[in-house]
Amino acid sequence: MPTYDYQCDACGHTFDEFQSINADPLTKCPECNKKKLRRLLGAGAAVVFKGSGFYQTDYRSDSYKKAAASDKSTSDSSSSSSSSSDSKPAAKADSGSSSKTKKADK
């Protein structure tokens, strides 16, 4: 929902109002209560990105790149070694549980 600027032609009071796009423009001034209010034309609300990190082309420091590379190489080596050791105990646990279910069915 955008914020609209209003100005009263009678008293000169200006203010912002947070309204729906489909809402009718305000006509009554909150200061002088006269129906001389008009909506001002503005640039409109635009999306403003503040800070860094919004685009892939943002520049990173060398220390960040080195830390990310070492973190990636560490996680790749640990995931490959843990996956081979994890698969053997899981297979044993599955074979034991399947024999128990067969006994329970009899």
Question: What would you note in describing this structure?
Answer:
The protein has 106 residues and is α+β, with helices and mostly antiparallel strands. The chain has a domain at 3-39. The protein contains one helix and three strands; from the N terminus they run E-E-E-H. Strands 2-1-3 form a three-stranded antiparallel beta sheet, with no helix packed on it. The protein starts with a strand and ends with a helix. The mean pLDDT is 73.
Total helix count? 1
Strand order, sheet with most strands: 2-1-3
Number of strands: 3
Shape: rod-shaped
Alpha-carbon Rg, integer: 33 Å
Helix fraction by DSSP (H/I, runs of at least 4): 40-55%
Could you provide a short overview of the structure?
With 106 residues, the chain is α+β, with helices and mostly antiparallel strands. Helix content is 42%, strand content 13%.
Topology, pairings included?
Blueprint: E1 3-8, E2 14-18, E3 37-39, H1 62-105
Antiparallel strand pairs: 1-2, 1-3
Descriptive key words:
single chain; 3 strands; three-stranded antiparallel β-sheet; 106 residues; alpha+beta
